[in-house]
Amino acid sequence: MKTRFSSLVALKKDAMQKSERLFEQANQKFIVTKKALEEAIAQLEAIPTLQKGVISDFMANRALLDAQRRVIAKNEQLLQEANSELLEAKEALKRIMMEHEKFKYLHLQEVHKILDEQKRAEVKALDEVALMTYDRKTRLKEVL
Length: 144
Hints:
This protein is mainly alpha-helical. It has helices at residues 6-46, 55-143. It is rod-shaped and about 130 Å long. The mean pLDDT is 92.
């Protein structure tokens, strides 16, 4: 049934679906970033620590460790950004879902109001028909 809130409900539903997609993308980005951080940590742990050898090997090993630590720091920063994006998307989705539910509720209230008015009109029409039938029967009795 069409009410004055029908178009608003449709718009809010579209906005909610768009927000759900954005939330899903932010969640996917968070998962990928977290996995990249875990892989970088695993790679750091896989780098062997040298106990003896030539100084150039120690320097190369040190440079490799430093580079991996920078990768980990970068991934941690990306993870924090992805987490904040995820939280923002979650809050936006929550707000939009509440707006959608509010207009959906108003739409349903309007539908119930229209249905009640239709029922009252039908009852009134049936009462009028009953009165007309009763009047006709009483007139027929009076004539006879």
